[in-house]
Amino acid sequence: MNENETLLLEPAPPTETPPAASHRESRAGMRFDGYEVGGFYDEMFARQGEPRAIARRLLAIIESLPDGEMLNRQKAAEQELLQMGITFNVYGGQDGVEKIFPFDIVPRIVGAAEWKRIERGLKQRIHALNLFIDDIYHQQKILKDGVIPREIIYSAKSYRRQCEGWNPPRGIWCHITGTDLVRHEDGRIYVLEDNLRCPSGVSYVLENRRVMKGLFPKIFSHSRVQPISNYPSCLRNMLAYLAGDEVPNPRVVLLTPGLHNAAYFEHSFLAQQMGIELVEGHDLTVEDGVVRMRTTDGFERVDVIYRRIDDDFLDPKCFREDSMLGVPGLMEACKAGNVALANAPGNGIADDKVVYAYVPRMIQYYLGEEILLPNVPTRICAEKPELQYVLEHLDQLVVKAANESGGYGMLVGPHSTREQRADFAERIKANPRNYIAQPTLALSRVPTIVDGHFEGRHVDLRPYVLYGKEIFVLPGGLTRVALKKGSLVVNSSQGGGSKDTWVLADSPVAELSAPQSETPRTPATEREGLC
User: Fold this and answer.
1) Count of H-run helices and E-run strands, the chain
2) Residue 466 · residue 234 · CB < 8 Å
3) 24: which residues sit within 8 A by CB, 6+ positions away?
């Protein structure tokens, strides 16, 4: 964006100013004069009252809006998300109903140079993780050379002996990855964890951007925000690539656990955007090692399955016998080379939070390189010296269970009670292999609308990486924000929300048109909510 460019804002649809925000409050509150950096790294401000260069234009535009207009647009965004049904389910919630994913219209901005470093680091990491997974299920050189203790792998809940010796199509195990990044007070970006099994959230990224472009059209038409609307077509192309060159028009489907899954909105959304069928396990059958789908035209062969079902439930003949969600014989068809699965079963071994601690060694071992995006310093409780330190410093550390997600199975030491620490100490001593500990990071913050004014809230970032013919990193990703004051937990299940992520380019960019999806053919067992 050139400094002499003038960005005009089109008015949002008329909305009433929320009752809590009076004319006087909106005039005083929707400015950044009183915004407090608060001693944290702020993504928008270099220091108190001094915006970073990448944010100056946006902040000036926000402050130029008429009184109450920012609040009107926030309300309009919330209403649109409600009408579109952009929801998620919280398992174990007392109300047991879907909830709207909270969204804040103040975006997070990432500069072009910084994004290039992040992109290189993510590509390096995914490349090494794929080599690691393939090695673990074949020659296990990294174990034989003592880089990773053998017992760490064999004791992992996500290690699948059923995958030993298997060669997935194109030699790719981690097709879709969501890597969680955080910025500490030192200004550096760290990898918090890897999500390789069934990473979720990209539908919110795409819908957040669509809403923002409707609310602030002139910003996007004149600025250098990199587009993301091509993600569904990139995902579809990557999936089709797995079918092999001998299949010119592969049939791709998305396998969902069903309507009551927490991410069902995303499953149906992505299937519709890619123009593929959304299926459940009972829509598919395996005959003579070939997967076929029941359709209104009869049984038709399936070449690629984008599965959003965990390994345990994929195939009752191979994994959990009591699974009612999967497809009997699916792994047999995979091993015969008759169908491709993304993500590949067994890749969760690289999703284990204890294995995460060894990623810097993996990169050095397989690529001969130093890690570009460092891990958060991690103590492995399975190692006795580390265990003792963790037990003695629980009040200072964040302790995580190896295979939990969503903010569960975690102790945030500085915010915990003595009883909670005593409970976790017993858990750790009973099963040290299951826990790691990390320092409490001062996550960076972004201005967020709170009660009619701006307050800093902690954020992380989940970029999405596709591994097909090449490795593609979506510019930006899901910025999750901890909406509770002082909270460091950004997960939606723990009260977090999201923001649009603007990755700037060095030069003007042309917005990509959204993919024109074909209408998917409906399986014979038509269901409510099927796209």
Assistant:
1) 15, 24
2) yes
3) none
